[in-house]
UniProtKB/TrEMBL annotation:
Residues 2-106 form the NADPH-dependent FMN reductase-like domain. Keywords: Flavoprotein, FMN. The lineage of its organism: Bacteria, Pseudomonadati, Thermodesulfobiota, Thermodesulfobiia, Thermodesulfobiales. GO terms for molecular function: oxidoreductase activity. It comes from the Bacteria. This is NADPH-dependent FMN reductase.
Length: 184
């Protein structure tokens, strides 16, 4: 399951996701391009603490269903002011029903060996910004029981050609191996 948190079509995040999905080939990949979806921010109404479900009816319901059944999660986001994009942050915040199910209603995920990858892309070399953004996604991983995860930082990326400073193919192969271990 791939989450594209970039608000910009054809940008560096799309470029990186395209590289990853090319290597994934025939695997069953579900990709959510969040900028193309109707996702409202969390209202903080706490209704999910009662029912385990969000009262906002929008495209998050497609995401909820996939999160419940998925074992592999890949989050891609540019860094905006030391965090993931507001679009991706809205998705993370809207996962509050999973927190409520786990911590209030006592319902855990039945999937074992869930794994996640966080790939963060930015024009800056300020490491703390990447670490803060990664931590936001790791909070979600904790809530949805993604026990093992890895993070990739792509710093100083202004244009697609800047990815030449990284061994993306090696990152992709290691990612495929990492996710392949969860299927054993």
């Amino acid at each position: 399951m791939i989450f594209n948190g970039s608000p910009k079509a054809g940008g560096n995040t799309d470029f990186l996701i395209d590289r990853f999905t090319t290597f994934l080939g025939e695997r069953d990949v579900v990709k959510f391009v969040l900028r193309e979806m109707n996702i409202s921010p969390c209202r903080g109404c706490e209704m999910c603490s009662i029912s385990g479900r969000c009262v906002i009816k929008d495209d998050m319901y497609d995401i909820y269903k996939k999160i419940e059944n998925c074992k592999s999660f890949l989050f891609f986001s540019p860094i905006f002011f030391g965090g993931v994009t507001s679009t991706l942050k809205s998705v993370i915040d809207r996962c509050q029903p999973f927190w409520a199910r786990k911590n209030i209603l006592g319902k855990k995920f039945e999937n074992n060996n869930r794994r996640g990858l966080i790939a963060l892309i930015g024009a800056t070399s300020f490491l703390k910004g990447y670490e803060c953004a990664a931590l936001t996604v790791k909070w979600l991983f904790n809530v949805i029981d993604v026990a093992e995860n890895r993070t990739l930082y792509y710093m100083n990326i202004e244009r697609h050609s800047d990815f030449l400073n990284y061994n993306i193919d090696n990152d992709i192969y290691k990612t495929i191996e990492f996710f392949g271990e969860s299927e054993e």
